[in-house]
Amino acid sequence: MAAPWSPELTVNHADMDRQHADLFRLAEAAAVAAEHQPRSGVERAIQSLADALIDHLSAEDAVMDETLYPERGRHKSAHELFLRDFLQLRAELDEKGPTPVVVDWLRRRLPEWLRFHILVNDVPLASHLASRPSGPRVLRRGASRRLS
Ligand SMILES: [Fe+2]
């Protein structure tokens, strides 16, 4: 089983922490589906993960723009690169089905990226949000973009 979300990954922003924990959970559920369920179940699980991932990254992008976060260029590029990687995973799934590459991506690559990204990029973003006079902002999950 992949390393789940754990307390040392908290960024002290309720929405971000909840969404991060959801992503770990959905990735593990998709890995279990890839190993044990028929193709339709795997696709559903990956779609749930895709929706949550896009919503989360879009919400962070939006709050960085709204609050003029100084590091937003670099942070958004990290999101963009990771989404491209995710599209490759979906292409692999569409082409070949739930191969070991797909399972490895869900069990290892995504959790590793998330851990690194949270500690390196999201902790400073959460501090920036907390330091604002109006307090931390709500991260809206708007489903503004969809992977299809
Ligand atoms: Fe982020």
In short:
The chain is mainly α. The chain is built from four helices and no strands.
Q: What layout of secondary structure does this protein have?
A:
Blueprint: H1 14-36, H2 39-66, H3 72-96, H4 100-130
The structure holds fe (ii) ion.
Can you offer a commentary on this structure?
This protein has about 150 residues and is mostly helical. It has a single domain, classed as Up-down Bundle (Four Helix Bundle (Hemerythrin (Met), subunit A)), CATH 1.20.120. About 70% of the residues lie in helices and about 0% in strands. The chain has four helices and no strands. The protein has helices spanning about 15-35, 40-65, 70-95, 100-130. Helix 2 packs antiparallel against helix 3. About 30% of the residues are buried. The model has no long low-confidence stretch (mean pLDDT about 90). Bound molecules: fe (ii) ion. Fe (ii) ion binds near residues 60, 79, 121 and 122.
CATH class: Mainly Alpha
Q: Which cofactor or ligand species appear?
A: fe (ii) ion
- In round numbers, the mean pLDDT is 90
Distance between the first and last residues' Cα:
27 Å
Which sequence of SSEs, written as H and E, runs from N to C?
HHHH
For the biggest sheet, the summary is: none
Which consecutive residue ranges, at least 5 long each, have pLDDT under 50?
none
Q: How many DSSP-defined strands?
A: 0
